[in-house]
Each structure stands twice: as structure tokens, then as C-alpha cells.
Input
Amino acid sequence: MFGNKLTLPIRIDREIKYWVSVASKDHVKTGIIEGIAQSCHGKADPLKRMKKGDFVVFYSGKQTLGKPEKCQEFTALGKVLDDEIYPFQVSEDFCPSRRNVEFSQSKDTSIIPLIDDLYFIQNKKSWGYPFRFGFFEINKHDFDLISSQMLRI
Output
């Protein structure tokens, strides 16, 4: 039906993607020490969207999970090391999914002075809205802006 040869364009590689993962600052700092990323309370689906070589920026709205003290900073910057997602038994009733991430040495950076220049924040008055999703893709412009501030050490 298709003749002797069927040639389909096969794309083995893909462009690097840039992600934001939302977690409290205390959890992000633990992730840096362990060299891992968790997202959305340990769900695997967000982590499956990332591929080896992608970059992820961590945003912390709060200092500590379950406490009211605000953070409103980008608190870590890393590169996805491989394509493995694995479960990790934290306690008897909590087994989150994780990804291995190589973190860059970076400084925590307030989002406030960046809001007007970040494309993923469409409504500048309700700038916190995108973070409610817990995990989302951003464009290279936004990643470059955030990382340029975080890597100024």
C-alpha cells in the first residue's frame, strides 16, 4: 500500500525545555542537598514532562510548608540529569516520585522586581496565579531572565 519504502521523519532529539516547580523553601533546600526534584506533593506526572538536559527553576511562595511566612523567591536552579523517575519511600504512608537534578550554585532571588518582565505572568496584578499549578513550562526568555539574576553570586 505504501510501496517498498516508508520513510517517516523521526526526531530523536528535542529542544531543551524550561520548567518551574513550586515548593516551600525548606523542601527545595532539602532537594538541593539530596540532588533531587519532587513536584506537586510527589506526583510522577509533572516529572515525566521533563527530559534529560532540561532546566528547572524552583519557586518558593512560602518559607516552610504549612506555615504562613512568605518567601516569594526563586530558590534553586538545576539541570535534569537523566530520564529516570523513581519512587522513594519517605515514610510508611508517603512514597513520592523523584528525578535526579544537578543544581547550580545560585542565590535566592525575589520575584518582585522581575514580575513586569516575565512573560509567563500575564496578569501583573495577580502575578501569583501561575504558581497555583505547581509545575509548568516557561520560555527561554523567562528562564534566561531568572537564571541571570540567580547566578549573580
